[in-house]
Design a protein that fits this description.
277 residues; alpha+beta; Trna Endonuclease, Chain: A, domain 1; 2 domains; 6-stranded mixed β-sheet; 42% helix
Length: 277
């Protein structure tokens, strides 16, 4: 989700604390071109650092794996300040990677920059579901590494494997989530839905993009969108498109084509499209 919002809007979404209201505000921050470049560079460096840490290196050795000399120097300067101030829990924190100005912009409500979408967490559990789904790439990356625990050789190379890891993540927060739940029968047939969360009347459908199906997946999703309203719990449909090879170059056009309010057989629902990673 974060990558998608950066690509389409040059924007970051989040919940930021506001001292005046003593509450979290749901915000959108549109990054300027120079800020966008620096933010993406910082996130890439942070990912390199975490990957090195996952391989067993300590913090200093992992930082050496970061390709940007400028960011390495920034983190070391930040660590010196944190150590001198006895803030040892802030060593190698994300703020060290993004720099002081981007830290302020992305971690607090800056007047004139943060667009307030709502005050307080509105208990929008569909938004929470979307946040969880946006983290699937991080979970896949973590589980794909050589693991000291002995878990290894996991392959996330099909819609079913991506669905299963997403289900494991979702089920902890939405205990009523169901996998492969059938729609109502029509002409003696029913269609299995990848994930259903009854409590929020939401269905999730996954599509894995490979060279062999990138020319037909949109038509396949349109068929799914026409079929799933037969499910009594389809109030909202998330189409999650897993595109690890970045094979889809026209993501914005696909989202505009598929997403939005729909009505079928007297039932109204909303379609939302997510590309990940």
């Amino acid at each position: 989700m974060a990558l998608q919002s950066l690509s389409l809007e040059s924007a970051i979404y989040g919940y930021l604390w506001n001292d005046e209201d003593h509450a979290f505000w749901q915000t959108r921050i549109r990054l300027r071109p120079d800020e966008l470049v620096r933010y993406v560079d910082a996130m890439r460096a942070l990912d390199q650092f975490y990957s090195a840490m996952d391989s067993g290196l300590n913090g200093d050795a992992a930082l050496d794996r970061v390709s940007s000399r400028e960011i390495r120097a920034r983190v070391r300067a930040y660590n010196e300040w944190a150590a001198a101030s006895n803030y040892l829990d802030q060593l190698y924190c994300p703020a060290a990677f993004v720099g002081e100005d981007l830290e302020e912009l992305t971690c607090s409500v800056v007047a004139g920059r943060a667009e307030v979408l709502g005050r307080g967490y509105a208990h929008d559990r569909r938004h929470l579901l979307k946040e969880i789904l946006s983290q699937v790439p991080q979970s896949v990356s973590y589980l794909s590494r050589p693991a000291r625990s002995g878990i290894h050789d996991l392959a996330f190379d099909s819609e079913l494997t991506i669905r299963d890891i997403a289900f494991a993540m979702v089920r902890g927060i939405f205990p009523d989530a169901l996998v492969e739940d059938p729609t109502e029968k029509h002409a003696g047939r029913s269609k299995n839905v990848d994930l259903v969360i009854p409590g929020i009347r939401t269905i999730v459908e996954f599509k894995y993009i490979k060279p062999g199906n990138r020319g037909v997946y949109v038509d396949e999703l349109k068929i799914d969108i026409g079929s799933y309203p037969k499910h009594s719990l389809c109030g909202h449909l998330f189409c999650v498109i897993w595109d690890p090879g970045q094979l889809v170059s026209d993501r914005k056009a696909v989202i505009e084509d598929l997403a939005g309010p729909r009505s079928h057989s007297g039932r109204s629902f909303t379609v939302e499209v997510m590309f990940i990673p």
